[in-house]
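Hi all, long-time lurker, first post. I run a small reading group and we've been trying to get comfortable going from sequence to structure in the token notation. Rather than ask abstract questions, I figured I'd post a concrete chain and ask someone more experienced to write out its structure so we can walk through it together at our next meeting. Sequence below, copied exactly:
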Amino acid sequence: MRGLRAAAILLAATLASASGCDKARWKKSAELVRDTGVIVQLERNPEFAGDHPLKPALDAEALGEQLCALAYIDRFVVAAERPVESAWPCPRASLVAEGIVAGLSEAGPEERVRFWVRWDERDPSLPMYIPTQRHTRGVAFWRAGGLELVFDRVGELEGETPRANADPTERRSRRVRLVPPEGAELIEVEGKRQPMHLRIAASELGHEAGPEKVGEAAPEPALSPEAAARLELLDELHRAGEIDDESYARRRAKLLEDAAE
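-- Answer (accepted) --
Happy to help. Here is the structure in token form:
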């Protein structure tokens, strides 16, 4: 019995140590925004390398419009009739944009911006006002002439703290896929688009164009960002064998038909 207890204590200590080491890599260095349901901070890691400080500063209004238009779809729901979900309320997205712009204009090369948004959402199908609390959380930094945002929570019913145990660039939810607004795209790594890693071009943010953009060109311009995201996700599910050929062909035809209307 004592042996089991000692083993349990050792395991708990090991997990706590591992979690602590992960947290220790990133340390809060400045508070940028603290408002109702919005926290934006600068954080520092000696091993990180970003293109900061960013001069001239980005256009906060333009970034706010980009973030306001950011949406997502459930990875396992690709039916065209289901609308996309907003990543966060626009007023709070604007506060995040202001914090990112202020942070990157003063951040050193070893710093980045962390953001966290919380809001209440009411289900219209319920007769009483029973709010559901949702969260969107991630980090932002400037690299290779573009703004990169990496999320670990988007519209989730969890993630109630501004700081995660794990780095969003290393571990994040696979439940959703972002739908980039015009002028933005999902980062591609080893031939696969990263569903929670977004890049916004310098030209969209009032900044001088930098080096050539990372990744492939944006989806076919004849399709809306939402339709392109749904089609790309459907292709991924088909390649992974999660839907058969008949279902794939039917859903693809439906998506293209709706996009053409």
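A couple of things your group might point at:
DSSP finds five helices and ten strands in the chain.
Helices lie at 2-25, 60-69, 90-106, 225-239, 245-260.
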